[in-house]
Amino acid sequence: MASVQDFVAEKFEKKAEAEIKRTFDDLSDTNMATDELFSFADYNEEEAERTGYSDYSYWGSTVRLFLKNKGAVCMLIIMLAIIIFTFVQPHLPNQFDPNKANMNALFIPDRNIQPNSTYWWGTNSIGQDLWARIWAGTKTSLFIGFTVAVIEAIVGITMGVLWGYVRKLDFFFTELYNVIDNIPQTIVLILLSMILRPSIKTLIFAMTITGWIGMARFIRNQILIIRDRDYNLASRCLGTPTKKLVMKNLLPYLVSVIMLRMALAIPGAIGNEVFVTYIGLGLPSTTPSLGILINEGREVMMNASQRYQLIFPVVILSLVTISFYIIGNAFSDAADPKNHR
Amino acid sequence: MAKYLTKRIGRSLITLVLIICVVFILMRMMPIEGYFQNFEKLSDEQIQSGLREMGMLDPLPVQLVHFFQNMFKGDFGVSHKYRVNVAVTEILRDKIPVSIKLGSLSILVSLVLGIPLGTMMARFKGKWFDKFGTLFIVFIEAVPAVVYHLLIQMYGTKWLNIPMLFDGADWRCWILPVFSMSLGNIAYYGMWLRRYMVDEANKDYVRLARAKGVSENKVMFRHIFRNAFVPMVQYLPSSFLNTVIGSIYVESLYSVPGMGGLLVNCVKGSDNTMVQAIVLLYATVGVIGLLLGDVLMTVLDPRISLGGKEGGR
Question: In the listed set B72, B102, B124, which residue is the last one of a domain according to the structure?
């Protein structure tokens, strides 16, 4: 064995030598003509005063870094446009009621009509206008997503701070976490939506009942890490109240990750709504949501001429979820102080 | 090691018992239609006597004890809607093997495709392969699974010229369901493996290897890959859960005669006892998956100190 090792070592040494030699050659090439490096600098009184000056601002740097990411900015614009449009759309001229089964002059329902100038995205199997339904559905889905994200964040942060800060509660919360984390969330979702009558409120309840604990766990871990750092110890010695300590010293550290988790919770919740509808426990069809529209589209999917009923909601859904995903990731990169120079 | 294992297994058992209790209590809150075949036609007295016969009117703790006793005898009750008065275990007996076969094939495929994806993305970081891979991962991670399952079914069956619905005897029918179920995990493995490999690539030992003049491919596969692969094990349990959830979609889409499709049918038909049994089965699979992940992790990585680590992911 020794001989093989020697052989390998020798080989490496030779290679390393060659490498070093090459590097030195490179250096001597580039560093020869650098007379200006040793010339005197001009003395400027104003410049000399500027030592120790920093124009660093946390949010300023965050926004600047975020704006540098062209793809994310693009997605943000699309996102905002969609959100605003869901509110504007019902007030535009020539719009249909999303729940009204439209009929023609002879009182025959306008079933499965391809997209045309009256029905911009066509109609579904009972003659409802798909354009109006999709925007109403997007609004519902976005509402569910935002509400779930906000509730999870509020409950998660509060519980996480308690969990991390109050030592007596640590055991209880840890055991609770171990149990909840072991239960597949889908199971909870299925059971709760089966028991409660399907409505927006019960869906949000079923999604948040276990969702907050992931956030709480994360906040707890971070707080355990930074709770006893010197600057917090100093604050505590100076008599800073705990509330202020948490709000001013601890939470600002966690903004980036909280935002990321919230941004990812939105597409997650929208996806969960689609799932619950898919297994037949979703909202009543009078409150259109993206899940309902996709499910309705799925039923006519086999028929090539009616596929538009699936394609339109799918495109909008993908656009919404992908933009949240990208915006969330870009923002959390930008908000991370480690990336600020 | 043994101490840690007993503790971890004990915790899983406690969790299971808790889950069973919670599921049981939740099931008692279900609409009672789910316990009768033709609820609308029954009079109040018939409903009451029916409930009494099933022991539903006993106090809750008594019911719970009965439930546990029956469970240990392997008796999960009878189906009330799906196949009337057939034992749940008998219905499930034919379904479980299909689901296991589908699930394990899908995990195999996602490992076979996901690991090279992550490795190649890290190897060609910033090149076009990496960019395409990232695009793929973002799409799969962000878009709800049902969207790409539907698209694959819609266009895949046409391109491959195979029937929409599943036929276990025809091997071509397995391709699309297995592939759809694997996509999520492929993206998942690819994303994390790439991240770990990129992290690992900045470490000193890699720089040393490069400085020694070890070829780039050797550095990637001999040094970086081996170290980056160990933490990947912790994602195995989550991918287990992903597969379980994916099976619910895929099996019902392609009408695969497995448990996932059955669950959707029974939820739609509100067959309480069936839902109860399948949900418990899924929860058990989930708990075992997480347990296996933790155990594998401690076995594979000697750097992890035993006993000190908390359970969970």
Answer: B72
